[in-house]
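Sample intake sheet
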Amino acid sequence: MSNSRSVSVSEAAAFCGVGRTTVGYWVRSRKLFAQRDGRNYRIPVADLLHFLKSTGQPIPPELRNGNSQHPVFKSFQSCWSFWAGRNDGHRCGECAAQRHQIRDCFRIRDSGGAGCPQACRDCRYYAETFLARFQFIYQIDFPAAVFKGLSLWGVNAGWAALCEAPEESFIGMGIERVVHPSSLPAVISTLKRMSLGERNAGGTGPIHINTPRRKKVPVDAWIFPLHEPEGAFLLLAGPSGAEGATGGD
């Protein structure tokens, strides 16, 4: 069964060997995400798998799909749907993310149009929906960043140290604020070649990274496409052999 499919409450109960009321409790208590389908609910298979794995329950054979050892993530749910019905200070009706249907809501955090009572780094929705998909970067020794649509989703401590800025400041930051203008064409060219399926297109070679003092820090960079988050890229940086590129704009 494909993880992109959904199942009914009755099907989920049969797969898990429990009653419909048990699955209904999982849904009502927000332990398990479900989508309304008329008067009924449909449960994304990805969310059912994530719930079962996170609670230590066995995975039914019908749901394994040959990938029982692979990481499982919750299906995408908009931030305003996630916070609906919760009395926690979120002003979703006033938020630009809901008004403009912005999927990656953290990209508007510096615009003044967000209705969130907390920073993204402290947000449960951000942690479960976005961070969970790329937290592997914290195990990478090289400076590493994840971006999609030319906006950063997050960076590890190595990248933050490279750019001399706190990790949380990169959430939603435009990549043009990280990569020096002189190096943006090389990065964009690499992305174009990768989109055309060109092999070995991930090495961009020497590029320059911005720091708060507008210095150009030379690094060797590599870009790799990621399966999760879909359409996102991993950007790695290492020491560069480039010379004479440490100062000025």
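Comment: The radius of gyration is 21 Å. Residues 6-64 form a domain with the Arc Repressor Mutant, subunit A fold (CATH 1.10.10).
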